UniProtKB/TrEMBL annotation:
It comes from Phoenix dactylifera. Keywords: Glycosyltransferase, Golgi apparatus, Signal-anchor, Transferase, Transmembrane. Residues 1-41 are annotated as: Disordered. This is Xyloglucan galactosyltransferase XLT2. Belongs to the glycosyltransferase 47 family. Residues 22-32 have a biased composition (Polar residues). Residues 1-11 have a biased composition (Pro residues). PANTHER family: EXOSTOSIN HEPARAN SULFATE GLYCOSYLTRANSFERASE -RELATED, XYLOGLUCAN GALACTOSYLTRANSFERASE XLT2. Its main location: Golgi.
Length: 511
């Protein structure tokens, strides 16, 4: 039902004008027009003077018949609203389906930190690792050097999109993209979220293996950062709940609970309890931790390059059922990796491995990428922690990951990997250990058609798992891992504001 209005709709005026013009035409004289009473009276007097009474009665009858005809004609005109809609020009698709505004969820303000918290740490790249310089690995905005070793492995047109990227470079990659983001606010009063560009992974990581480092060394930069940011007006207004930070290492490197234990205590420091943290591995029991993909070597500049890569990996002929890139852990009792290597040997030509002992795999791409491009499935046991960069290398290559710990992915990357969809295989490690199942038997039982559908799903996810090289993203509405993270943060803060506002409204009703 249309809403009522006190004023007549514009269609009524159109209809009135239509009747007016029809009446004028029917009488061939302004005399028949009721909007001209003076002229109508003169015309009537003129007719009375010239016509005899019998003709006068006939004329009156003709006029009455014409008025009846006009009345029926007016009633047969289509309803005014339908008439207008019928002749309205079609709405262009862009207007009919209005896309959301680019920054509908809010703007992001980037805190202007002193250089000691990012640039100076990067400049000291020679001293970030006790064994070797990390300057090359952290060059090119965190992408590392070009992956020249991939020549001949991938299409030459895509070779410029591949780098030897360090798995701990996310905080550098995010900072570069955030500075150029379309929703970056220059005025903090216009921001819905506040990004703290602290390279905490570099700050803590440089002391993790140093033989002379202390807990104080691992905490010093983090404590200074919190002292600085807590003095800023945006922080004081919210106590940090609308702030977020990217940390390029796993969450456990920042969760030292006792003196002398591993890592720093950044995430346990007063002030960090409200901050959202984006990490390559999250604590499943801390909702402030958000898992983001490990950086891989693929950094496309455009959506077209992503689609070209997707076509390439989907069209690959894969000669191996499954593969494993890793090394046995001789010092571990009942080492599960050693068990998987044995499974691969027993599978014969159905499985291939790459030995990554002694850091052979590192940031070099050719050997592991070739392995995954040739495999339908790739085995992904836990690494030093529950997650592995190798899982993302595997998926970017279009292979289906096989997981043995649920904490390796399913509770880690909820913003990126869909729940309840077939993009992976889960095999309980306890059943493998007991001999109740074999990896080969499970994977052969999946069948060719189902495996094909799983691969298609993995390839569909690739854009969300990579970090674009272009500062403005991939374009054409295609979101990369950075876009997913920033959109997720903004939605999280928006939803919290709504919940807080609703709670305040409810409390106000009881006052």
């Amino acid at each position: 039902m249309l809403p009522r209005s006190e004023s007549p709709p514009p269609e009524a005026e159109l209809l009135k004008k239509h009747k007016h013009s029809s009446s004028t035409a029917a009488g061939d004289s302004p005399a028949s027009n009721p909007d001209h009473p003076g002229k109508s009276a003169a015309a009537a007097k003129h007719l009375q003077f010239h016509l005899p009474p019998c003709h006068r009665a006939g004329l009156v009858l003709v006029i009455l018949v014409l008025q009846l005809l006009l009345l029926f004609a007016a009633r047969s005109i289509p309803g005014p609203r339908l008439h207008l809609l019928r002749h309205r020009p079609p709405i262009p698709p862009s207007a009919a389906t209005s896309a959301p505004a680019p920054c509908a969820a809010g703007m992001v303000y980037v805190h202007d930190l002193p250089p000691m918290f990012h640039k100076d740490l990067l400049a000291a790249c020679d001293d970030l690792n006790p064994w070797a310089s990390r300057c090359a690995a952290l060059s090119n905005g965190g992408f590392g050097p070009p992956a020249a070793d991939l020549a001949g492995v991938i299409p030459s047109s895509l070779l410029p999109s591949w780098y030897s990227t360090d798995q701990f470079a996310a905080e550098i990659i995010f900072h570069r993209r955030m500075l150029a983001h379309r929703c970056r606010a220059r005025d903090p009063s216009a921001a819905a979220a506040f990004y703290v560009p602290f390279y905490g992974g570099l700050a803590v990581g440089r002391h993790l293996w140093s033989p002379n480092s202390t807990s104080g060394d691992r905490d010093r930069d983090c404590a200074l950062l919190l002292r600085w940011v807590r003095d800023q007006p945006p922080w004081r207004r919210s106590n940090g709940w609308d702030h977020f930070i990217v940390l390029g290492r796993i969450t456990w490197d920042f969760r030292r609970s006792r003196e002398g234990d591993w890592g720093g205590s950044f995430l346990y420091m007063p002030g960090m309890e409200n901050v959202t943290r984006l990490l390559i591995e999250r604590n499943p029991w801390d909702e402030k931790d958000v898992g983001i993909p490990y950086p891989t070597g693929f950094h496309p500049r455009t959506a077209a390059q992503v689609r070209e890569w997707q076509r390439f990996v989907l069209g690959r002929s894969r000669s191996k059922l499954f593969s494993f890139a890793g090394a046995a852990r001789a010092g571990f009792k009942d080492d599960f990796r050693g068990l998987l290597l044995g499974e691969c040997r027993r599978a014969g030509g159905q499985c291939r491995t790459v030995d990554c002992s002694g850091g052979r795999c590192g940031n070099r791409s050719a050997e592991t990428l070739s392995l995954f491009l040739d495999s339908t499935f790739c085995l992904q046991p836990r690494g030093d922690s529950f997650t592995r960069r190798s899982m993302f290398d595997c998926m970017v290559a279009g292979a289906v990951p096989v997981l043995f710990w649920r904490r390796s992915a399913y509770v880690q990357y909820r913003w990126y990997l869909p729940a309840g969809e077939e993009w992976s295989v889960f095999i309980d490690r306890r059943e493998v250990r007991s001999g109740a199942v074999s990896v080969r038997g499970v994977l052969e039982g999946i069948g060719v058609e189902r495996a094909k559908k799983m691969r298609e799903k993995v390839v569909e996810l690739i854009p969300r798992l990579v970090y674009a090289a272009a500062e403005g993203g991939l374009g054409e509405g295609m979101e990369d891992a950075f876009d997913v993270a920033v959109d997720g943060v903004l939605r999280r803060f928006r939803d919290r504001r709504r919940r807080t506002g609703e709670a305040e409204t409810v409390l106000g009703e009881f006052e």
